[in-house]
Design a protein that fits this description.
By secondary structure, the chain is mostly helical. The protein contains 12 helices and no strands.
Length: about 270
Amino acid sequence: MSDMIKVIILSIVEGITEFLPISSTGHLILVNHWIEFKGEFVNAFDVIIQFGAILSVICLYFNKLNPFSKRKSMRQKRDTVNLWMKVVAALIPTGIIGVLVGDYLDKLFNPTVVATTLFIGGIAIILLEKRRKYPSIHSIQEMSFTTAFIIGMIQCLAMVPGTSRSAATIIGAMLLGANRQVAAEFSFFLAIPTMAGATVYSLMKTGLHITSSQWILLLVGVIVSFIVALAVIAFFMRYIKKKDFKVFGYYRIILGALILAYFNFMS
């Protein structure tokens, strides 16, 4: 299998899984293992192609995220600034903890850890959806800065591969009173600086060592992940207007069990 085909496969996986509560990092680790796409460049690639997913959020929500739009009233501009301030508040814990422990997490990037966290996260999603509680937060404007900060703390759990940044932030937001739509949108918006920071950090570590052919692979990866993520976000937001997250919980449990069985009994 050529490197270009491997890149396209991984980019499709990234675009599908980045904003669903099923762990993009976990899926990329597993797919990398099966297609045998390895090396220092691959570690950077898995992070940098997230830039395509970031662009998809910016594209779909540009008006909502742009505080300088001439089409907005002053109140709408203030709401947008307020949104970004809450994103920054949620970003603080991730930034601090990421700097403190980021270099010690490499040993966790293996199929057994991914399978275990997929399984546990799936149970958490199902239990969350079975609880009888009506949401109290129906817009990001109704969300307090304290709530945003706590969501950011919960997001730190996603540093363990297989947990899913999307799942952690969505579950955290819903536990704190947000409805599904608000929880999903805040998760999308929080992903922009989180993933942009990870991309820049990865480029700083490996950028000088990336060859011209590898830059082409990265460009293809970003474009493919962007296109796929656009479609997935649109589908996901339509889906959760009528249905809950249980299907993602069951998917995580089944996938986690299959991975544990394969790597412990069949490999």
